[in-house]
Amino acid sequence: MMSPNESEGKPAANCLVSVIVPAHNCDAYLDRCISSLQKQTYSSIEILLIDDGSEDDTLLKANLLASGDARINVISQMNQGVSAARNNGLRHARGQYMCFVDADDWVEADFIQNLIEGFNGPMIDMTICDYDLVSDKDEHLKKRKEQKSGVISSGKALKKAIGHGYFQTFACNKCFRNEIIRANGLRFDCNISAGEDMVFVVEYLLKCRSVNVISNCLYHYYQRPDSTIHSLGRHMHKYRTMISGYDKVQEMLFGHRKCARIIRGRNVINIANVIQLMYLARQTDDAWVHQALSRVRKDYWLTMRYQCGLPRERILAGLCCISPSLAVSFSRLHLDAWKRLAQKVLRLFNIHSVWL
Q1: I need a surface site. Which of 105, 278, 308, 316 has the fewest CB within 10 A?
Q2: Alpha-carbon torsion angle 247, 248, 251, 256, nearest 10
Q3: Which domains are assigned to the chain?
């Protein structure tokens, strides 16, 4: 139950924050991640470190870290995927507030402090901070477009999340009220192995009142070469589950017509990507491919209407409507050539985009 202060929008003093860290074969990165959590200026935290059947020394290192810090609780499970690991953490969490941090990422020392202080306002049920993407060479691959700090309605936050702009739909740069998670039985879908955060975040947004946006960059998302998202080309099945995730979100958005349409448009990009992968694998006679092509051709106008994805992705999806083989051939163009082609196509249709 919420304390009187929490019901007025203010977190109770020193309320417990549960930080769930799923880890699978992350022994090379675990020290950096956990060290950044141990250095938090907000001290009332518990760190639930879920080892998801690692085959390296992740569990050994996790137990070693826990032996020197009572705030760390190590939970070991058979390898079931990140969604099952997070759900395991949710079952064991004791905190009034929940954060998720991936084991190969790290956070600033005031990450939790800022997110918790962000609840100081009426009817705020989620806080979100800025983040950046960091490569294996510590290069900052992408910094999100700056967003002004301030409280926005959950409906506006939903539109920003669906639109794939600043807000994004992954769980790791956000703080959630555990009471809302428990009251609505929210869990990560274990049948979705890529883009699983989106279903959880959208479902949560549909249950909350307002969101406090914090413009400070407090979360560092490390994109390692063998990460799930980075290697989607080698994980066709995972990409196909992402399509299922988008379909599930579309069903959730009944009554939010524009958001549902944007999701359909974004899903065209996902479907077109899988079709191209299957053509590369010479699986062109698969019945799924023919059904998928029909979906792409039917919904492609939504992709263009709402400018879903990058210009390169929109062009490839359009080429896929004509001929998947043609799309595969164009996909091999160098990035600079793609930028020039995208600019020409966008000028042709008198469309402006900042995502080149």
Answers
A1: 278
A2: -90
A3: 4-222 (3.90.550.10), 233-348 (no CATH)
